[in-house]
Specification:
Distance between the termini: 39 Å
CATH superfamily: Ribonuclease Z/Hydroxyacylglutathione hydrolase-like
Helix content: 25-40%
CATH topology: Metallo-beta-lactamase, Chain A
Structural class: alpha/beta
Order of helices and strands: EEEHEHEEEEEEEEHEEHHHH
Largest sheet: 6 strands, mixed
Number of domains: 1
Shape: globular
Radius of gyration: 17 Å
Strand content: 25-35%
Length: 235
């Protein structure tokens, strides 16, 4: 199996390239447009055919390479059914299967960070987007985010998975690459709460600045910006 976790230094975003082996089909989760050439180079080196690309939600801190990857490889663009993206080919529902050769992911609707946030379970791995981070959770104060929704996404869905399940988030700001459900239950400070109300109290008082790219990234990701458009936009 091929499992590559790539990191974007500017937005602290993790992108995942997954395949059952060299010369086989592949999928990518949460790609960043500045790194499009790195993804294409990796696919070529491993002789992979990109057939599906997934965004866990509409990102606010970077522009997604989802649409550009599709234009260059003819892969299918996938998001959850609640996404407002205008360029998605396949909108998956909760508990829907996404398959490529010998690889199967199951979608989980996990709103709270945004109202279109989905996580994706692959056997003993879960890609949590910005819902569950390592020793943190995604903010809930924009894009129809809701701390109570996120509490239920965490405690009624993600944390019900086996303790041995590996967590792979869309971001990390301290160099962490992965953790497990069991470890996060014990060490994640945001998860040491006894009620949705207590969790909401924490999240509603974070007082974070908006992401620097938010005003550009959100509309760009809804429209599916291409690389040429991105270059023009950032000149």
């Amino acid at each position: 199996m091929i499992f590559k976790q790539l990191f974007d230094n500017k937005s602290s975003t993790y992108t995942y390239i997954i395949s059952s082996g060299k010369g086989r089909e592949a999928l990518i989760i949460d790609p960043v447009i500045e790194n499009i050439n790195e993804y294409l180079k990796t696919l070529k080196e491993l002789d992979l055919k990109l057939v599906k690309v997934i965004d866990t939600h509409i990102h606010a801190d970077h522009i997604s390479a989802l649409n550009e990857l599709s234009k260059q490889t003819s892969c299918s663009k996938i998001m959850g059914e609640h996404s407002t993206s205008e360029v998605i080919d396949i909108k998956v529902k909760d508990n829907e299967k996404i398959k490529i050769e010998n690889i199967e992911l199951v979608s989980m609707y996990t709103p709270g960070h945004t109202d279109c946030s989905y996580s994706f379970l692959m056997k003993d791995k879960i890609f949590t987007g910005d819902t569950l981070l390592i020793n943190g959770t995604g903010r809930t104060d924009f894009q129809n985010g809701n701390p109570v929704d996120q509490y239920h996404s965490l405690f009624d869905r993600i944390l019900k998975l086996p303790d041995e399940t590996f967590i792979y988030p869309a971001h990390d700001y301290k160099g962490n690459k992965t953790s497990t459900i069991g470890k996060q239950k014990k060490t994640n400070p945001r998860l040491q709460v006894k009620s949705a109300e207590e969790y909401a109290e924490i999240m509603n008082n974070l007082n974070l600045d908006n992401p620097k790219m938010m005003d550009i990234a959100v509309p760009a990701n809804k429209k599916g910006l291409t690389y040429n458009d991105f270059i023009k936009l950032t000149k």
